[in-house]
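Thread: Newbie trying to understand structure tokens

Hi all, I'm a second-year student working on a class project, and my supervisor (Dr. K.) asked me to get a predicted structure for one chain before our next meeting. I've only ever worked with sequences, so writing a 3D structure as a token string is new to me. If someone could post the tokens and maybe explain what I'm looking at, I'd be very grateful. Here's the chain:
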Amino acid sequence: MTVAVSIADYCFERTRTIGQMNVALGLIKALASRPEIERLVILKNSTIPAPVKKENIEYLDCDIAIKGKIARIYWDQVGLYQKVKKLGVQWLLLPKGFASFILKPPVKLAAYIHDAVPDYYQTHYPDNFSQLELFYFNTAMKASFKNSSLLFTNSEFVVSEINRLCKKWSVQVSIPVVCLGIGFDRPETIAKTKNGRIFALISKWRHKRSELLIEYLKRWQTAQRSQNGIDFVGDLPDGLQFPQMDGWKHYTRLPEPEYRTMFNRASTLIYFSEYEGFGMPPVEAAICGVCPLYSNIPALKEVMLGCGFSFDNYDFDDFSKKLNLSLQISIDQIMSWGEILLKFHNWESKARILIDSLKNKPR
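---
Reply by user tm_fold:
Sure, no problem. This is what the structure looks like when written as tokens:
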């Protein structure tokens, strides 16, 4: 089997979705681990180091994809397919899930659909996203539905989202939709001694509800007179500022080694969101021995398998109660959750599903 994977449009310094970039790299490693892959061609750019090196893997730098918006659109719509046509591979895998709506794919296409965020914003926050971008990404997703030979998703929730969008857009999908999921690696070491700090992820994206998270944590710290420090990682939404609170620190973006050190030593991870296709950080937290505290929404309930603590986004008392529990839980219980999650969310099992799907579902 010969496969090409395009990650040329990812760039750590610019990407809005580091999680999706990590999934793409995980998919490449999963493919590379399988003996069925005779040739694997990775279309990347010069900012991305080779994630894995084997004799059957070729890397091609395609920097045009990161040279600006116009160049990126050209790559998405024309350049990628032109490049793949010359490679002589059987499959093209698109880890971002957005296909060209100008050209038909020159080989069998597999698109990995992460979520329906463009449609969600068009419905819930139409003034908080460029309408042109929303149109572009929704049209590209429709093209994936129409022109792919196979669709992968990260959760059953996203399978239901694809079905919902198909009805909304009057698009018929007669191809297999496979819930592939996401894999995680077992950490080399787990920091069993925690620093008592809370690791809170924030974002400019409105659906992450950073303003509500900050309000809840301010109320919680004031009511509890807590000495637990809080590390906020991510960008603040425009117009939002932090209150003056003891022990609060803010980091917009951290290099991976620093992020890992801070993440692994934390006592609790808080993941606040009103919409996700999967939601990687709470799973990763439990696997790394950090207690996950997360919003009680469909995708997170599905992927967490009952592990960690979930809270009602609009109930401060519930949030406060669950946060207190998360800070009191034993490391042994967290590690037990981590084992449950690793058994289900691992790249070895995902690689088998991926290869079986490519082998058995050609169009």
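A couple of things are worth pointing out once you decode it. Residues 198-344 form a domain with the Rossmann fold fold (CATH 3.40.50.2000). DSSP finds twelve helices and 13 strands in the chain. Feel free to ask follow-ups in this thread.
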